Amino acid sequence: MPITVEIADSAVTEKDFEAVFSYFRSVDEQFSPYKATSEVSKLNSGELKEKDYSSEMKEVLSLAEKTKKDTNGYFDVWHKGAFDPSGIVKGWSIYNAAKILDARGFSNFYVDAGGDIEVRGKNMEGVLWRVGIRNPFETSSIIKTLQLTDCGVATSGTYIRGQHIYNPHDQDSEIKDIVSLTVIGPNIYEADRFATAAFAMGGDGIIFLASIPHLAAYVIDAKGIATMTPNFEKFVYNPN
Questions:
Q1: What CATH number should be reported for the domain holding residue 98?
Q2: How far apart are the C-alpha atoms of 180 and 195, rounded to whole Å?
Q3: Each residue of 27-83: pLDDT tens digit?
Q4: How many angstroms separate the CA atoms of 57 and 46, rounded?
Q5: What one-character-per-residue DSSP string does the chain give?
Q6: Residue 195 is part of which domain span?
């Protein structure tokens, strides 16, 4: 997936960018379900036994189990017997990449992997970072622009990748009542894991998200009608 890193602090060097990209490459090698040599593929083939799991794998499995409990079972990394932790590894790895930059002393940056984003501080112009939400029916246009700092934002949807998110309680059904769901959280890990689970809930997802005080959300249904949680509006950029 495309990865974009922007660091607005003046002391940045090429080594700082390379530290982040090197980390993402290592995550891909370890957790990609599409690479035969990855830990995920070896687990699925039976080659890797539980006693041989890496510390990172143990952490991801633990986080996935917690998310399953936090979302009433609507998040599950097991689908018809196969293990695919992509729904949690993505946000987790972006958050870890941001912590690499934190540790290097940076206060103003943007990390985007496949459209899921963690931001700190301000951009090169000295204003809050601006993030657009695509129109799921016309992806070249933006329907909302957000202004964000020190948080994460994730969007789940079927308008680009099709029906790739499933309801663990009804694994053979397709989610057709909503097409896009954006979640803002205190970090990208929180935003991403709840965005995936809430999308699996379909139209009830926005109600679930509204019950979680540290999250804000915006959903677009199949008819093009948008609904937001009460706390979402404060993040919307209004040039007027």
A1: 3.10.520.10
A2: 10
A3: 999 999 999 999 999 999 999 999 999 999 999 999 999 999 999 999 999 988 899
A4: 15
A5: --EEEEE-STT--HHHHHHHHHHHHHHHHHH-TT-TTSHHHHHHHT-S-GGG--HHHHHHHHHHHHHHHHTTT---SEETTEE-THHHHHHHHHHHHHHHHHHTT--SEEEEETTEEEEESB-TTSSBEEEEEEETTEEEEEEEEEEE-SEEEEEEESTTT-S---BTTBTT----SEEEEEEEESSHHHHHHHHHHHHHTGGGHHHHHHT-TT-EEEEEETTS-EEE-TTSGGGB----
A6: 3-235
Residue 193 is predicted with a pLDDT of 96
Q: What is the per-residue pLDDT across 71-124, written as a single tens digit (0 to 9) for each?
A: 999 999 998 889 999 999 999 999 999 999 999 999 999 999 999 999 999 999
Task: Please check whether residue 240 lies inside any domain of the structure.
Answer: no
Mean pLDDT of the chain: 94
Contact 195, 152 (CB under 8 A): no
pLDDT of residue 120: 98
Structure-block tokens of residue 165: 């998110």
Structural domains of the chain, count: 1
Q: pTM for the full model?
A: 0.94
Does the residue 145 lie in any domain?
yes
